[in-house]
Amino acid sequence: MLNVDKLIYFRWPLSYDRVMSKKKAILLCALIWSISLGFILYCWIDQVVYIHLGDCSLQMTQGKKFFYEIFIVIFCVLPVTSSLIVSIYLFKLTRQKRNSTIVGGDQTTFSNKVKSLVFIFATTAWTSFSLLPYRLMNLARIHLFTWSSLECADRLRMTWIAWCLVYLLTINPIVNPLITSLIYAPYRMTIKRFLVN
């Protein structure tokens, strides 16, 4: 839903104030939070997820493990994928407009919009590269092969791939601020002033 908001802002900027007011934005955020919290509460109340008394580990009830797949698809794969698709579309749109002739005073505005889109595209591309592979591998592990049927060498290979993807997942919040600080001009200038002074 927030990716639709981003698309409207960059694709139809003159219509944005009419389509997306402050009240609509608050309602949109409230809806997203309600869906997220509602899903978690439902899983907890319906005993989809419970704490095992023996070792205090978090477990899933047999027969309800499909909720994990629903969680991965709705809350992990779809938001990142839709964000990547919108970012690629906006990046292509910007390149097309850059190649067309720009009327006099619009040059500065267009240049600022290009910088914003490059920033959005870079952070989205990194997020997709670091977050999606682990989630997709989990879905593949559930649907495409059975762990017990794999040979020892294949299990070892899959374990190494899984560990690499987990590390990629964990370095996402480390690299994301670096991308932001290097690409987004206000942050870059602030860091430059801080280092020079």
From TrEMBL:
Domain G-protein coupled receptors family 1 profile: 1-180
Keyword tags: Membrane, Transmembrane, Transmembrane helix
Database matches in PANTHER family: G-PROTEIN COUPLED RECEPTORS FAMILY 1 PROFILE DOMAIN-CONTAINING PROTEIN, G-PROTEIN COUPLED RECEPTORS FAMILY 1 PROFILE DOMAIN-CONTAINING PROTEIN-RELATED
UniProt source species: Pristionchus entomophagus
Principal subcellular localization: membrane
Location of the protein in the cell: Membrane
Any one GO cellular component localisation term in the record: membrane
InterPro entries assigned to the protein according to its UniProt record, in alphabetical order: Aex-2 (IPR039952), GPCR_Rhodpsn (IPR000276), GPCR_Rhodpsn_7TM (IPR017452)
Transmembrane segments: 25-50, 70-91, 117-140, 160-185
Protein name in UniProt: G-protein coupled receptors family 1 profile domain-containing protein
GO MF: neuropeptide receptor activity
